[in-house]
Amino acid sequence: MDKALSALAMAWTAAGQGYQASIFFTFWGMSLLRKKRGAAQNSLEKLFKLLLPVGPERLGLSKMNFAGIGGFFMKKLIRLRGNETVSEMLALTMERKVNFIACQGTLEMLGIKESELIDYDQLTIGDVVTFLNLAEKSQIQLFI
């Protein structure tokens, strides 16, 4: 949740300042892009699909999650302070047409199909070379 909020906030702000912003999603970041849990081909893939949250509302904290309690309190703090939730920040980022790139290697490794991902015109499937080409041409690169 914390890393997702940071990445989305930076991309949203960059797009608002006129930059062309892109986010490259790998491993646990793929949770933001998942809309459903698809069928698994083997037991290990099934386990990962069960462990990997579906959608932004199910994300925990990257540190001090404490079996979900940390995430619960962070969500409570976000509401108390009037800040945007991960879902709201994702929607705002999409409104600004930030490019989302789902890592092809991660999708293959975890057995996630493109049909399991959100419907978004700015979402593409790419690999590390895609990310490196974007980074090489950009003015700013961040890796969270």
Which features does this protein show?
single chain, 144 residues, mainly alpha, globular, 3-stranded parallel sheet, 9% strand, Hypothetical Protein Ychn, Chain: A
Q: How is this structure best described in words?
A:
This protein is mainly alpha-helical. It is 44% helix and 9% strand. It has one domain (2-137): Hypothetical Protein Ychn, Chain: A (3-Layer(aba) Sandwich). The radius of gyration is 15 Å and the shape is globular. The protein starts with a helix and ends in a 7-residue tail after the last helix.
Shape: globular
CATH homologous superfamily title: DsrEFH-like
Structural class label: mainly alpha
**Strand residue percentage:** 5-15%
The residue ranges in which pLDDT falls below 50 over 5 or more consecutive positions are none
| Overall number of domains | 1
